[in-house]
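Protein 1 of 2
SEQ + STRUCT:
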Amino acid sequence: MAAPSSAVGCEDFAEFQELLRVMRTIDDRIVHELNTTIPTASFVGKVDASQTCKELYQSLMEAHTSRERIIKNCIAQTSSVVKTLREEREKAQDDVALLKQLRKEQTKLKLMQSELNVEEVVNDRSWKVLSSFRKRC
């Protein structure tokens, strides 16, 4: 479920968060996915568990890489906006609207940076779940 980084709207934080929520679906459903695709001991011969595990592993890797790339891209874009606004603020210190816009962008940047921490937690959880199923793979 990888989305192209060019289609990501970094300007609207709510849209950014919704995209990440949708992209994290694979991580949210990892236990269900493993339980329904990896056979128990009695059905081992009927399904190629190793191939299924490899496919799931690859899907997780792609999802994690894609989300990290999107988050870092949006952080870079927003950092650039903040830098530009700071430079403008240096020139026009009396501009209240500019200060308001700068604060808004700084807040958005902090929220985006916190998404990297959330991403790390989500990824760790998924890898722990996947490794717990290793015996069946």
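Protein 2 of 2
SEQ + STRUCT:
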Amino acid sequence: AMRQLPYFCRGEVVKGFGRGSKELGIPTANFSEQVVDSFPSDIPTGIYYGWACVGNGDVHKMVLSIGWNPFYKNTKKSVETHIIHTFKEDFYGEILSIVITGYIRPEKNFDSLDALISAIQEDIEEAKRQLDLPEHLKLKEDNFFHLPEGKIVNNR
């Protein structure tokens, strides 16, 4: 997996393809292209886990997928974060801060939507277990998650 772990990243949440919530029942937050382009180019694609925080909110467990978007004929990498928490509303335009702490598995193709959904559910369970370990848990408290006041977008 990624040599650069833990990897710290923050950026604005933009509208994705709307696939996550609608088809899978698993909402994901997409970073802008600019943020995705700033990721090290040698990051292996696949499923990762870590911590995420929207604006100046609470820090939650998350699962992250780094992959090639077939929609763009495999020229554009996409980075999608599923925060393991139920939000009452969308947070497009907010600043999402994430720390990627570990790697779960490579990307793979699935024969059916059901197979994909159950794989994601397993990824989520694995992420929850890993993030309870002390070396990952300590990153939840990292100062990275405390945005300076000026940085908050759409402070509600």
